[in-house]
């Protein structure tokens, strides 16, 4: 396994957050672990779309799938991610909207 540099780790995290659906999944999992069907309903996407996003988030090392019988439950890969998301929200909410008024659907500034 290759060693990741700090910049590559942050790039991976940024990539995961760059998509509004993935960001919403991470925020939902910040509150509690969940099953894909419940996440799809909560976020308002198809199960196939959610599955693709969960695969991306697993590949980025941000979420983990935990088998429970025949079902898989998803949770943040590390509880510190929930704290990081909460802290990040506090910082981003303090940004002056005049200088960065892009909505999540439009992409990056």
From TrEMBL:
InterPro entries, per database record: ArsR-like_HTH (IPR011991), HTH_ArsR_DNA-bd_dom (IPR001845), HTH_Metal-responsive_Reg (IPR052543), WH-like_DNA-bd_sf (IPR036388), WH_DNA-bd_sf (IPR036390)
Highest taxon listed in the record's lineage: Bacteria
**SMART domains recorded:** HTH_ARSR
Q: Where is the HTH arsR-type domain?
A: 1-96
SUPFAM superfamilies, alphabetically?
Winged helix' DNA-binding domain
Give the matching NCBIfam families.
HTH_metalloreg (NF033788)
Protein name per Swiss-Prot or TrEMBL: Metalloregulator ArsR/SmtB family transcription factor
The protein's organism comes out as Pseudarthrobacter quantipunctorum
């Amino acid at each position: 396994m290759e060693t990741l540099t700090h910049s590559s780790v942050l790039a991976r995290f940024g990539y995961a957050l760059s998509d509004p659906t993935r960001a919403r999944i991470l925020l939902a999992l910040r509150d509690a672990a969940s099953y894909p069907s419940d996440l799809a309903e909560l976020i308002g996407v198809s199960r196939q779309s959610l599955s693709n996003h969960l695969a991306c988030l697993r590949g980025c090392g941000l979420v983990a799938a935990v088998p429970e019988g025949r079902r898989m439950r998803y949770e943040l890969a590390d509880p510190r991610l929930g704290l990081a998301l909460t802290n990040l929200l506090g910082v981003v909410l303090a940004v002056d909207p005049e200088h960065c008024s892009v909505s999540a659907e439009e992409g990056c500034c």
